[in-house]
Amino acid sequence: MKKQTLWTRITNPKYIMVYATIGIFLAIYAFGAFLYGDKGFLTVRTFVNLFIDNAYFGISAVGMTMVLITGGIDLSVGAVASLTGMFIAYGTTVLGLHPLTCIAAALVMGVGLGLLMGWVIHYLNVPAFITTLTGMFLARGVCSLISRESIDIKHPFIDALAGWKIYLMKYVDGNWVKIKPIAFINFNVILFLVMIIIGAFILQRTRFGRNIYAIGGNEQSAALMGLPVGRTKVLVYGFNGLCSVLAGISYALYVKSGWNLSLQGGELEVITCAVIGGTLLTGGVGYMAGTLFGVLLKSVIPALITFNGNLLSWWGKIATGLLLLLFICIQRFVVTTSDRKKGQ
Amino acid sequence: MSKKSFDISSLMQSKVTWAVIAELLILLVCFLIRPDFFSISYQPSTGMLYGSLIDIVNRSAEITIISMGMTLVIALGGTDLSVGALVAVAGAIALKFLRWDVLAYPTPGDYTVCSYILVLAVPLIVCALMGLFNGFLVAKGGIQPIIATLILMVCGRGVAQILTDGKQFTTGYSPFRFIGQGSFLYLPMPIIITIVVVIAVALFTRKTAFGAFVESVGVNPNASKLSGIKAAGVILIVFMITGLLSGIAGLIYSSRIMSNDSNNAGLNFEMDAILAVVIGGTNMSGGKFSLAGTVVGSLIIRTIVTFVYYFGIVAEATMAFKALIIAVVIVLQSEPVRKYFAKRAALRALRKGGMKA
Amino acid sequence: MQEKNILEMKGITIQFPGVKALDGVDFSLRAGEIHSLLGENGAGKSTLIKCLTGVNRMDAGKIILDGKEIAPTDPGNAIELGISAVFQEINLCPNLTVAENIFVGRQPMKHGQIDWKEINRRASELMSRFHLDIDVTRPLSYYSTAIQQMTSIARAVDIQAKILILDEPTSSLDENEVQLLFSVMRELKASGMGIIFITHFLDQIYAVSDRMTILRNGHLVGTYNIDELTKVELVTKMVGKDMDVIFSLKRSEVAPDAEFMLKAEHIGDASKIHDISVNVKKGELIGFAGLLGSGRTETAEMLFGATKTVKGDIYVDGEKILIKQPFDAIKADIAFCPEDRKRDGIIGDLSIRENIMLAVQSRKGFMKPMTKQEQTELANKYIKMLGIATPDCEKKAGELSGGNQQKVILARWMAASPKVFILDEPTRGIDIGAKAEIQRLMLEMCGQGVSVIFISSELDEIIRCSNRVVIMRDRAKVTEVDGASCTQKDILKIIAEGAA
């Protein structure tokens, strides 16, 4: 029996992409610290803000990672999240319902749509791209049917939830004091981190999670190995629907309004997060840790541009594109070198 | 089994058939709601024909043109997500040229500051080169098309914004207006351009062996290479064509609004084009493609919009109804459903044939 | 106890569109026996297995397992019933680790979580039972095909089923690994498991099985004890006709003063092959003998430009040519029928017509298209000449049987009228009748002046057809022997010992 030392475990080729993501994130962060360290780029607050400003992307990326690992894709997430926001805004402000009622309705909508799309994809054999694109049109259309204007959310429950925060403290001279500049984490950040942990647990520690990988590796083989392919795929899209709704709630808490055109193109940003986190669109490969850093990596760029102050925000898009290019090149390099190794 | 029954079942199995049936049904419903739906009138003042049908074809021009290229990309087993962004890029460059020196010409008018040829050629060349970049990543880098084109999809609008400093220019240059709003042979120019593009792509793929090579590479790239097909070249050409066609669509789009709109020009065009191709019967996993089917697919998407409008529903809700109708078409086209209908048709024909015999 | 039937399949009938894949087939398996299932391609072996594992539904018949009637609905259900299978193509997930591939779907759990330690420990144990000392926590794709094959066997074995099905498990294993597999099979047999074994290698059938059942065209020919039939009788029953065709094949006659059509001098690629020289005369057939990985395929791929040649020179018909990609080789009138028909040869979704015209067309370039009528004529000519079984040339090539697909690929190249034809394992995985047919075609081409390079793992084929045999070992050419005077033993000795 070959010894599994800590070293062989760490150097297992399957983790290379996660390391690349973390490495590049640290490099860019160091670059930012070098340029704008004096403006406060290195503070805890800047780092925590990455989480606060992008939690909704992160929550959605958890579900998206799973979908991508099965070899599928889900283009409906942005629209479903937006629709969730509309549910909450319209329900509380116009209909006078309690936000929890609206959230419950949104959950039924999101998970139901996800399950339905999963069913169509697997049992009717319609490409995931087309199915979820239709789902996106549907959700976006319903948004517009509800309202064509942005609706503010004004409800004590929402205010309380959005305003709830834990200040980060430090221990100075026997007292706990807030760190300066003041940094805190809020409900969204906690939800994001909890979802990452749940996602990681599902993927690494449950049979359902491992079936997801097996399907992405080779769907036909998975079926011949006796794995429940259909059920797994349908549930993955259902779970992604759940993540989209949670992302929508998180976004609603962040902006405190619902708008039919919010989060347009969000699905592709979420996919970008997952991809620069090392998830392969061909399926079978991806880690929650990678996705976590993918979200951070993608969000550190706008942060840098804000710190610069002179650059047009459009450079952010170009930088994200270049980052994507860089990652794809690294992935290609990793794949070709590991192929070459195998050949020898 | 008689020859005829075989034909029926293969017809029922064909996705294009279902697309045509869907289009006809939608048109029929439009006609029932608005009896004047099919009427076409001539307006001497503009020298153009008017009518709902003309409008549908006219408005579908950009998507039809782009989806010609998209059909080839999908036949290769890929998708091109960057086409919408390229539409924005083409518009930005064209308007940048039309309003090269904003200070000298402070108000939009019927003038241009550089050769009109440049106004048209540069956007097209840039878009073709961007397409070539996509193709290069796919063919030489071995990167999945959806990811390779995601790069330009993400960057493209940023590039368009930076080219125009994030501003929206307007122009009044009439030769430019002609592209999107003029007419030729009683038809709006976009329709003429669309017809030319469709015929050109059809000739290029079907009158040469290029189409067969595309299909072959789409089904099995390895085997195609070993049969002597230069697969990389085929991929490069296809992505370049798609880029170029996106550029043409971009010019039409910006000529319609006589402005550039880097945020909204070509928004979701990639999605509509892919839908048009798939509804038109080309398989997303690559292989056999049908340009005629794609044209029908593109018309369906546009007809739905008109259809929804006739129902008196707010424009913003169009998407929901579009989604519902597309969902029906796609479910009808799905493999299990088609097989079910084909089986029934074959059975019925068999029974009929049996009774005669 | 030995005589007790663990499995009985009675009157199994499966109808596919247009054909009866199985027609009232009976099959029985005893506990503690290895039972070979034999037949040509398309005889119905795989269909019978798929029916037993729930991949295909049967239209009539019943399956009785341990006295109870069963009807497996899907592979998962079959595994629950105690039927475990290793399918012909490796059916594992390349992205999962070796250990996980063995246990996925039935991972040991601890505190409601997957117990990874246990999985890796047990997987290591299992693999060491196959004398494989590997790191089971690496992804499957990291390892060679042989190890992947062993992994899928380990999975099937570990399921502790009542019935184990092995469908062509040995195709990518070397001799040692085959012996290892056999010893494991014998162990399992001793523990009372019933094993169904499918293979194309006749020697292996006689080495390991107790009984055999022969199928032909979806019908049962019969079930025999292993000592009841000789090899020749067995083959005759499989083919349904005598093997005169094969034995009547005559070697090509090469004129003594024939010119060299292809000369490769000291060629080598970037990583594997360093220095190989081969030459073929006009109308000559050269056999490449050697084990898998000995450099046979790599050499062929270099000659055709499928892999890059980094050193040495290639001459065709006396002219030095530079081959950078397959297109260059085709321009120089070289043709190549690749080893992996499905991956590199056939273009499944295109019609037979399009598959056949491809090489001719790609040589012309896409700007000079053949009309559909020209294509149809070309295709029909070869359909007739090669006896491709199809209603017309518009049928999808992917829907043909293996042998017919191979003929389509041959037709593709014959249509390009090559001067040099390289065939890499053209007879693998196709039935004996089609094998003989393809050998006959190769020799016919030689007769017309084509130079042929023939790569095969089956030495008797090589010896039967070749004028000269090039023997390869460890990615280098060991020697050449005369095809007419050498014996299998000579060649085997050289392959094994490396000395000329």
What's the short version?
Chain A has 344 residues and is mainly alpha-helical. Chain A is 72% helix and 5% strand. In chain A, helix 3 (44-69) packs across helix 12 (266-276) and helix 4 runs antiparallel to helix 5 (99-123).
Task: Tell me the overall shape of chain A.
Answer: globular
Q: Record the strand order, biggest sheet of chain A.
A: 1-6
Outline type of chain B:
globular
Distance between the termini of chain A: 22 Å
Mean pLDDT across the residues of chain A is: 89
Strand content of chain A is: 5-15%
Strand content of chain B: under 5%
CATH topology of chain A: ABC transporter involved in vitamin B12 uptake, BtuC
**H/E series of chain B:** HHEEHHHHHHEEHHHHHHHH
Q: How many structurally independent domains of chain B? A: 1
Number of helices of chain B: 16
Can you give the helix content of chain B as a percent range?
A: over 70%
What profile does the largest beta sheet of chain B have?
2 strands, antiparallel
Q: Using the coordinates shown, work out and report the CATH topology of chain B.
A: ABC transporter involved in vitamin B12 uptake, BtuC
In DSSP terms, counting alpha (H) and pi (I) runs of 4 or more, how many helices of chain A?
14
First-residue to last-residue Cα separation of chain B: 11 Å
Low-confidence stretches of chain A: 340-344
Counted beta strands of chain B? 4
Strand order of the largest sheet of chain B: 1-2
Sketch the major β-sheet of chain A. 2 strands, antiparallel
List the helices and strands and how they pair.
The complex is a heterotrimer of chains A (344), B (357) and C (500).
Chain A: H1 6-10, H2 16-36, H3 44-69, H4 77-94, H5 99-123, H6 128-146, E1 151-152, H7 156-163, E2 165-167, E3 169-172, E4 175-178, E5 184-186, H8 187-205, H9 207-217, H10 219-224, H11 229-255, E6 257-258, H12 266-276, H13 288-308, H14 314-343
Antiparallel strand pairs in A: 1-6, 2-5, 3-4
Chain B: H1 3-13, H2 15-33, E1 40-43, E2 48-51, H3 52-59, H4 61-75, H5 83-98, H6 116-139, H7 145-163, H8 174-181, E3 183-184, E4 187-188, H9 189-206, H10 210-219, H11 221-226, H12 231-257, H13 269-279, H14 291-310, H15 318-333, H16 335-356
Antiparallel strand pairs in B: 1-2, 3-4
Helix pairs in contact in B: 1-16, 2-14, 3-14, 4-9, 4-12, 4-13, 4-14, 5-6, 5-7, 5-12, 6-7, 6-12, 8-12, 10-12, 13-14, 14-15
Chain C: E1 5-16, E2 19-30, E3 34-38, H1 45-52, E4 60-65, E5 68-70, H2 75-81, E6 83-86, H3 98-103, E7 109-110, E8 113-114, H4 116-129, H5 145-158, E9 163-167, H6 175-190, E10 194-198, H7 202-208, E11 211-216, E12 219-225, H8 231-239, H9 244-247, E13 260-269, E14 276-281, E15 285-289, H10 296-304, E16 309-316, E17 319-321, H11 326-331, E18 334-337, H12 341-345, H13 352-364, H14 372-386, H15 402-415, E19 420-424, H16 432-447, E20 451-455, H17 459-465, E21 468-473, E22 476-482, H18 488-497
Parallel strand pairs in C: 3-10, 3-11, 6-9, 9-10, 15-20, 15-21, 18-19, 19-20
Antiparallel strand pairs in C: 1-2, 1-4, 4-5, 7-8, 11-12, 13-14, 13-16, 16-17, 21-22
Helix pairs in contact in C: 13-14, 13-15, 14-15
